[in-house]
Structures are given as structure tokens and as C-alpha cells.
């Protein structure tokens, strides 16, 4: 919070588009619930990307949005949250920003349901999303046979693995796992049915 003149400016909020395990009903949503409980996040609604983007499974069934605009056949469905700076720090830890797993970058999304107040049009908003790190995104796209998903659903999520550490769910993925995943020449079951 900053003070300017006699007014108190509200804390800065960032719009975050969640397409994977942070969504309601998935493994890491407990973090979003904690952020909502502490007033560090607010659920805005169900949104969809304006551009086609690949959404794929990586090592251990972890979902990755690839920053390859116009690639793939789907506009990705997810949830939009308004998140405080404190909440954003916790999300960055979960997503492994400093470990090179993901990078938080801009994205344009629109509500899934058209706004009657705007003549039935979808009103696009600028947000941020956690994309697979650029160092392996193209290889991950090839490894997935250049096929992705429209949504990280319960069916797609089967076999997703996580670990609990210090009260925060974090991904148990190492650089070795990425290399092994990307170098596999044959189809390997990376998730259980």
C-alpha cells in the first residue's frame, strides 16, 4: 500500500490466468484457496486465451502452456484471478520461476461467457500466465507430437504428481527429468491411468 497525498492507494493486483493444477478441483488449488482466504487473490471467472496456444503434459503429467502463439488447434480454457504482490510471490515459488520451470509472461484472455453489457462481445483483458520456460518449450511441443489440449481436465490430469514441502505444494521436477522427458525416443507412460 502506498500513500499519495491524503489518499491510500490500494495494493497492486496482477491478473493471473490459471490453466492447470491451480484451477478449482485440482491438486494445487489449495494454494489459491489460501490466497483467497488471506485476501491475496480473488476469483474473477472462467476465461479462454485469445490466441491458439499449445497446452501439453510434461514430466509426471505436469501441465505446461507453451509460448508458441498461433501453434496448435486450441484456445486454452482456464480461470482468471486477481492476485496481490504477496500472493504472486507464493505462486512464483510454486511454479519454479527461479528454477527455470516456468516464466510468467503476458497473455490476452477473454471471458468464456459473452458480456451482455458489451453487445454480446467478449471483452479481452491483459493478464499474465505461467508458460513453460523458453529453453525447452519447442522440444516439449515436439515431444508431445505437436498435439495439445484445450483444457487441463480431470481426464488429462490423471497421474499428475506433486510433493508437499513446508506447507506449499511444489513440483518435484528436476533438470534431469526434463532432459530425460525430452530425449525419450519411444513413447513412455508418464502418467498412470
Automatic annotation (TrEMBL):
Record-annotated Gamma-glutamylcyclotransferase AIG2-like domain positions: 16-134
Active site: 95 (proton acceptor)
Keywords, sorted A to Z: Acyltransferase, Transferase
Residues forming coiled coils: none
Superkingdom assignment: Eukaryota
Gene Ontology CC: one annotated term: cytosol
Gene3D superfamilies attached to this UniProt entry: Gamma-glutamyl cyclotransferase-like (3.10.490.10)
Annotated CDD domains: GGCT_like (cd06661)
GO molecular function (one): acyltransferase activity
UniProt KW Iron-sulfur keyword: no
Entry similarity comment: Belongs to the gamma-glutamylcyclotransferase family.
Function text: Putative gamma-glutamylcyclotransferase.
Official protein name in the record: Gamma-glutamylcyclotransferase family protein
Amino acid at each position: 500500500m502506498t500513500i499519495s497525498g491524503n489518499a491510500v492507494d490500494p495494493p497492486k493486483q496482477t491478473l493471473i490466468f490459471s490453466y492447470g493444477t491451480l484451477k478449482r478441483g485440482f491438486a494445487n488449488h489449495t494454494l489459491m484457496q489460501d490466497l483467497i482466504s488471506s485476501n491475496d487473490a480473488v476469483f474473477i471467472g472462467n476465461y479462454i486465451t485469445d490466441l491458439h496456444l499449445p497446452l501439453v503434459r510434461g514430466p509426471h503429467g505436469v501441465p505446461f502452456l507453451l509460448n508458441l502463439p498461433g501453434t496448435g488447434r486450441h484456445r486454452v480454457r482456464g480461470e482468471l484471478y486477481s492476485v496481490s504482490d504477496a500472493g504472486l510471490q507464493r505462486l512464483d515459488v510454486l511454479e519454479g520461476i527461479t528454477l527455470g520451470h516456468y516464466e510468467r509472461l503476458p497473455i490476452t484472455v477473454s471471458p468464456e461467457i459473452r458480456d451482455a453489457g458489451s453487445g454480446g462481445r467478449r471483452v479481452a483483458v491483459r493478464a499474465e500466465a505461467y508458460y513453460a520456460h523458453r529453453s525447452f518449450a519447442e522440444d516439449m511441443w515436439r515431444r508431445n507430437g505437436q498435439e495439445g489440449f484445450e483444457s487441463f481436465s480431470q481426464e488429462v490430469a490423471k497421474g499428475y504428481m506433486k510433493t508437499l514441502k513446508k506447507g506449499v505444494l511444489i513440483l518435484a521436477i528436476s533438470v534431469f527429468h526434463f532432459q530425460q522427458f525430452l530425449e525419450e525416443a519411444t513413447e513412455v507412460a508418464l502418467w498412470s491411468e
